[in-house]
Recover the amino acids of this structure.
């Protein structure tokens, strides 16, 4: 072996070793989503490439799962029951960390991709989200309440599962569209991409997305929270002025 | 046209909200009521979170009552003395209401309590109004003048200690009575997002026995200040005042009120009152049914 070649090999060895497992290079169409007055929801495009060691495609099909999670928040879930002919809140449960938003897109139906254990570990699927219950309910009741919570979030468009939502082309490039509804909560979101092979997660990568109110909307929301007294006073004044100006205007018109 | 409400945290069709304000404005122009009892349930029905609906509707009523109050002021139709006592009671009521609102929110029973209050208050007052209006319509039909009814304050009011003279109202009664009345309507404003005119006006006539010339003006005076106080209470405690929503509602209601006021001049007052009674009863029945029907959402989430 010529010294130059030996040197090159020694130099490249760590890189080659690091490449023994496939790697994901993900990206999103928008790193930041601004909520302005005309916001009616947004469409996120998540795309990327799968890098295989040596550029060789594996013989087995690889699959992709993309999970977008909104900031987790502690909540109280209340359940209405019929009491004396009226539907009133009768039961409740606390959850310590409920993602305010959760959407998963997969290249094939989820139950064919991973087993239950893997799905639970990586929180794949709306039924596998870690909700951290904190009320000490009996398991049956806990399950009923959790199902109710997930169902409520699904119908509000805040939890979603998109089977076949990821397209993989040529085995290396993937992309998925995920819809964010108008009611989407603000905060820092994470977009996790998982490469699945033979029921196991072989690679993963995370990107962050910031969803913020911006401009006037941001200003109003911040004022209402931080300068509550001035905000209230301003609201009263605006209301008085509008009412007064309106009456004046109509008197002129007559 | 979709517009995003920064506090409610969702986007609504601006035209729908303005139209809703307009509809309520027409009614308020016709009957001299604030119309909060319609705005709040309709907003909640449209999908606005209840706390935001209640708080922003109070803000809207402030603006909606300005022009009416000025008009009555010019006709010397406002008893400032009486109004001051009512406002003092109302301010106390709205602060107390703020605490009750928070406590009910925490226990999860706010929606039920609000709905029950709506059913009983609107149902009771609607029935009273309907009965009164039907007798009046009956009398007019037979060619007799509408019964005036003896103007006298309730015996309970007379038993309260201390007496003040309220010149414009033509009363010599204890200030405790209007103070309590103001307190009660202040509570209602915070809890229900209503001005309280539909409680205040009958109570001023039938309980206090005030001169009818100053009843509407004085009630508008009280509503203006108490809804303003309520906006402050909500801004400081629930942070639920959505200024964009309030402005949209106001644009509709200020215009609607002009239309309503012209329409009111052409219709006999007895029929007008009968129609108002009908609307009030319809809202009461609808809210009542809403309690007994199986709701679409059995579950609700409250962020801590």
């Amino acid at each position: 072996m010529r010294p130059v070649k030996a040197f090159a090999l020694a130099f490249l060895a760590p890189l080659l070793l690091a490449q023994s497992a496939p790697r994901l290079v993900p990206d999103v169409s928008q790193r930041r989503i601004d909520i302005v007055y005309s916001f009616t929801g947004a469409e996120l495009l998540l795309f990327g490439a799968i890098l295989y060691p040596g550029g060789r495609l594996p013989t087995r099909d690889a699959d992709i799962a993309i999970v977008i999670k909104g900031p987790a928040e502690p909540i109280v879930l209340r359940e209405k029951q019929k009491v004396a002919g009226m539907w009133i809140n009768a039961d409740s449960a606390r959850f310590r960390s409920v993602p305010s938003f959760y959407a998963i897109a997969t290249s094939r139906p989820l139950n064919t991709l991973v087993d239950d254990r893997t799905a639970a570990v990586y929180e794949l699927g709306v039924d596998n989200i870690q909700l951290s219950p904190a009320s000490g309910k009996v398991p049956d009741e806990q399950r009923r309440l959790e199902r109710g919570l997930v169902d409520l979030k699904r119908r509000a468009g805040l939890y979603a599962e998109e089977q076949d939502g990821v397209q993989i082309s040529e085995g290396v490039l993937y992309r998925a569209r995920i819809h964010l509804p108008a009611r989407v909560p603000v905060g820092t979101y994470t977009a996790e991409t998982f490469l699945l092979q033979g029921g196991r997660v072989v690679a993963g990568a995370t990107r962050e997305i910031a969803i913020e109110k911006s401009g006037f909307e941001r200003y109003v929301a911040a004022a209402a929270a931080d300068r509550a007294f001035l905000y209230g006073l301003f609201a009263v004044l605006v209301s008085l002025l509008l009412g007064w100006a309106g009456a004046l205007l109509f008197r002129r018109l007559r | 046209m979709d517009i995003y409400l920064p506090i409610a945290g969702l986007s609504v069709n601006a035209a729908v909200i303005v139209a809703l304000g307009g509809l309520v404005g027409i009614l308020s122009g016709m009957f001299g009521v604030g119309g909060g009892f319609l705005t709040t349930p309709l907003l909640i029905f449209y999908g606005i979170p209840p706390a935001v609906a209640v708080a922003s509707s109070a803000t809207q009523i402030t603006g909606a009552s300005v022009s009416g109050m000025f008009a009555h002021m010019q006709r010397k139709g406002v008893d400032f003395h009486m109004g001051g006592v009512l406002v003092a009671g109302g301010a106390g009521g709205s602060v107390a209401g703020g605490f009750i609102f928070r406590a009910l929110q925490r226990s999860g029973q706010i929606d039920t309590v609000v709905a029950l209050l709506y059913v009983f208050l609107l149902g009771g007052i609607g029935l009273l109004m309907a009965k009164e209006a039907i007798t009046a319509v009956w009398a007019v039909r037979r060619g007799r003048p509408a019964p005036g009814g003896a103007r006298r304050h309730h015996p309970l009011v007379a038993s309260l200690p201390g007496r003040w003279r309220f010149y414009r109202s033509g009363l010599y009664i204890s200030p405790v009575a209007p103070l309590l009345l103001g307190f009660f309507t202040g509570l209602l404003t915070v809890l229900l997002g209503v001005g309280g005119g539909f409680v205040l006006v009958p109570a001023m006539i039938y309980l206090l026995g005030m001169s009818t010339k100053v009843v509407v003006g004085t009630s508008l005076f009280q509503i203006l200040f108490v809804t303003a106080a309520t906006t402050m209470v909500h801004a400081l405690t629930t942070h639920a005042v959505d200024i964009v929503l309030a402005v949209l509602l106001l644009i509709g209601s200020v215009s609607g009120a002009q239309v309503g006021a012209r329409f009111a001049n052409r219709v006999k007052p007895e029929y007008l009152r009968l129609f108002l009674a009908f609307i009030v009863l319809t809202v009461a029945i609808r809210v009542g049914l809403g309690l007994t029907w199986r709701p679409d959402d059995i579950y609700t989430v409250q962020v801590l």
